[in-house]
Specification:
alpha/beta, nine-stranded mixed beta sheet, 18 helices, 42% helix, globular
Length: 450
């Protein structure tokens, strides 16, 4: 089925995704590494209950791991692990992390069957409900990538640990409430320690944020700019994505409260303007489709990139739309979203839906192979007009895993602008991440200039 992009798509493994469990009974353990890995800074350990704070050396120079993937045994986590197994550079010291050692061991065996060099991949046991294990995890890595969601329930402990340890952090959240609360609570500390906290490194919101950035780069500098994005998706979703979307839809009051609190803490932009107003429904002659306003996290991310980067000009406006070929399809999309909003407000209905679509499962490889996404952009300013497109395969899972993995590798290995605190993908990685994604098969193209 072809749909507009849904809020929270690619938002992680869901509550039982490896890493999420309430209580303080989680542990952090490092599995044995190969001799070469040990020589790179990680000492081989038994599977004892020792914590590796001293070995991690947080703030004390070299850490054992370049990248740690937390929530590795969830659906998207497993796809991300497979991508890293195939594409991480030979010098990359990476590890799998989660709360279930048996699940991590099974994943490592599955990876090693295809990529023998993964046979000694380190396994780190940590729990989203155990702050000590999260601090140890953050202290052992240069970059932590997490798929453990819904993030508003399970995400803050790891953000706090990374901000404190000066560890770069990437996730897959599409939850505006979570992003706003993390900015208020942890941005200042991350700036002090040098940690880069980069949310929304999957389909929410990489194609939209980097697509708008790519479009702006095709337009004149120093002039007001207008960009519209039109999203089309042909894909299905997993239980984890469904759980994240229902969670967000059922927390309207909290979402608004978090947004208000963030505005009180956000420095005012002086001499420039960057905004993302909600456009009205319309027929888009530029794309030949019906356009419906899409109030997801994505336009907020684009506006924050524009506020941080002078290249977006003195007055930047972005509007974000779901795109449908026919009016009946557009009206059907509106009806489906409306039904989801209503269902999310009724606790028994919400619980029934979440039980029916259990997290941890996702579409088959065959179904994902038929899936696709396209985000078309129309940009104008300074008497110029440009049409661009970002497109690829299965958006919520295969491409999201690719985007998350490449974001983590980009932070770990690429020369990047000096940034810290909560930053967007365009601000933190920009051109470097676009080039990585292009090399990985995601298309960024200029369709027309005028």
């Amino acid at each position: 089925m072809e749909t507009g992009a849904g809020a929270g798509r690619g938002a992680g493994a869901g509550p039982e995704g490896d890493g999420a469990r309430s209580g303080a009974d989680g542990r952090y353990e490092a599995g044995a590494r190969s001799g070469a890995e040990a020589g790179a800074g990680a000492h081989a350990q038994s599977e004892a209950e020792t914590r590796p704070e001293a070995e991690a050396g947080a703030g004390a120079g070299v850490r054992p791991y370049d990248v740690v993937l937390f929530g590795a045994t969830g659906f998207v986590g497993g796809l991300t692990a497979e991508y890293l197994a195939e594409h991480a550079p030979a010098e990359c010291r990476w590890a799998l992390a989660g709360r279930n050692r048996a699940g991590l061991t099974a994943l490592r065996e599955r990876l090693a069957a295809r990529w023998p060099h993964c046979a000694d991949l380190p396994l780190l046991v940590a729990d989203a409900g155990d702050p000590d294990s999260l601090r140890a995890l953050a202290g052992s890595a240069r970059v932590v990538a997490t798929t453990v969601g819904p993030y508003v329930w399970y995400g803050e402990g790891l953000v706090a640990a990374c901000a404190e340890a000066g560890t770069d952090y990437v996730d897959l959240t599409g939850e505006a409430e979570f992003v706003d609360r993390m900015y208020v609570r942890h941005d200042a500390r991350a700036r002090e320690t040098g940690a880069r906290i980069v949310h929304a490194c999957g389909f929410d919101s990489v194609p939209h944020d980097l697509g708008a950035y790519f479009t702006v780069r095709q337009l004149p500098e120093g002039v007001p700019l207008r960009v519209d994005g039109f999203v089309r998706v042909g894909a299905t979703f997993s239980g984890g994505t469904f759980a994240s979307a229902l969670t967000a839809l059922g927390r309207g009051r909290q979402v608004l409260g978090a947004a208000r609190e963030r505005r009180l803490h956000t420095p005012r932009l002086v001499g420039r303007r960057a905004h993302a107003p909600l456009g009205g429904p319309r027929f888009s002659g530029e794309t030949g489709t019906w356009a419906l306003p899409l109030p997801t996290l994505d336009p907020q991310v684009v506006a924050r990139s524009a506020a941080a980067l002078d290249r977006y000009g003195p007055d930047f406006r972005y509007r974000h739309y779901a795109s449908a070929k026919t009016l009946p399809m557009a009206l059907g999309g509106v009806a489906a979203v409306g039904a989801g909003v209503v269902a999310a407000q009724i606790p028994p209905v919400r619980r029934w839906l979440m039980e029916r679509y259990q997290p941890g499962q996702g579409p088959s490889a065959e179904r994902r192979a038929r899936s696709w996404f396209s985000v078309r952009f129309v940009g104008e300013g300074g008497g110029r007009r440009v049409f661009t497109e970002v497109s690829g395969g299965d958006p919520g899972y295969d491409e999201t895993a690719r985007m998350l993995a490449e974001s983590a590798l980009c932070l770990a290995f690429d020369p990047l602008p000096k940034t810290a605190g909560q930053v967007t993908t365009a601000v933190a990685m920009g051109d470097a991440l676009i080039e990585r994604l292009r090399a990985a098969g995601i298309r960024f193209r200029v369709a027309h200039r005028g």
